[in-house]
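Sanity check

After download, print the first record. It should look like this:
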Amino acid sequence: MNATHLSDSTEALNFVPRHGVLVLVGYGISVSVDNGHLIINDGIGTERYQYRLPRIGHRLKRLVIVGLDGLITLAAVKWLRDQDVTLSFLERDGRVLSVVGPAGSSDAKLRRIQALATSNGVGLEICRRLVDAKLRGQERVLLERLNRYPTADVIARFRDKLDSVETIDAIRNLEGNAAASYFRAWGELPVSWPKADLRKIPEHWRLVGSRQSPLTGGPRLAATPVHAILNYVFALLEAETRLAISSLGLDAGLGLGLHTDTADRSSLAFDVLEPVRPQVEMWLLDWIASEPLRRADFFETAKGNVRLMAPMCAKLSETAPTWGRLVAPWAEYVARTLWAAASRAKSERILPTPLTQQHRREAKGRPPFSVVSIPRADHLCRGCGKPVASGTTHCATCAVDVSRTKMVEVAKQGRVASKSAESRTRLAATQLRQATARWSWDPSSKPDWLTDNFYTNQIQPKLTNATLSQIASAIGVSILYASDIRRGRRRPHPRHWVTLGLLVGIESLGEAPSL
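Expected structure tokens:
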């Protein structure tokens, strides 16, 4: 595809997906404002694109930038803020560099309550509820997707102990031990790849592998594609959680104790997103169980770290709104629980629910939370990895090869199954007849004009007009061999060329026909 310049805003809207997520990758990314329009440039080399979006009707909800080379102007940041568009900076290894989005009012009282939550027991109860929901989700994954009933029982026993523990450290230990058992069940899961990619991938890419990377001893710097995908999607979930927390007026960096507060860590965001992790993992397991991955979507560094290529980053980023909707109820649960914990706050205003509109839905008699549909992965050909229509497993080209392979296997099975003396006698007679015909054939009987080039250029292409039965009967071969001859996979013995020439309409046998 050539570089694209979109000066007309109507044309530009066609490049903003319906879900409203626009992903920028490559070098020299720039985001600026010109005459009230947002001007976006991205791409690599000759694959450069420009988007020009107006303030009205742009459909943009999230702008995701993957990379470190480029610029964004202050006017562009304000434009995005005025339009309630989220701006996220991500690394391909699953790190969230920055998230900018709509923020709620900074309620000092709510933040004071949040700061005291680790010392007054409120944080302990919230963490207990969050971890309980996470362990329930892991049980469901083990039972419904992995069929690991013993491991699910182990997780259930850890969950049963939650009610009796009295410290954050004890909850962290239970959660950590459960996670270790949970991900051990993942390690030996197979990962399918298109047949054309099998020789291009390392052997350890054929399994999900350990959650603990050999490069870091933790989840960072994944060494297998599945965990690289998981890291990136978790980064999207983290970004969505930080936005949700900020819009509620909470401090994303001030955790409740489940994750230790450290520099450059959004501890509260990591606390809140824990119940949603199993839903992300179930989505990924469904993906790798039903669709192959493609080698072109991954890059392995010199040290063995697996990075995602730009198309994969863009495809995964489209799921961000889904994770935002799933984490919204948990963010509001934390905010409401903190607010209700203050005795003076009980008689004051009710904390709003801007993310889920729960209060409004309840007032109208609707369910408290809307149903969130999980996005589906692309349907790919099992042979070459190209996108194919739903309900099919191979593209048209690969389907032909698969059919032929099956025919060969059936033929082989038939030959192996044929053990009778009659069948062996018949096979020996056929082989003897063909060998005798080759030995007794006189090359001088072939017309001089009937050369290899003539057969290749004049006879073989015309065989497509003949049926397989006509070819097989004319020269005494099987239907399978006739198929190979017609497709050009095999060249018949020169003694058959005259017969095939007559079959396709070449009348003269003694001298070269007029072409």
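If your output differs, re-run the checksum step. Summary of this record's structure: The two ends are 41 Å apart (CA to CA).
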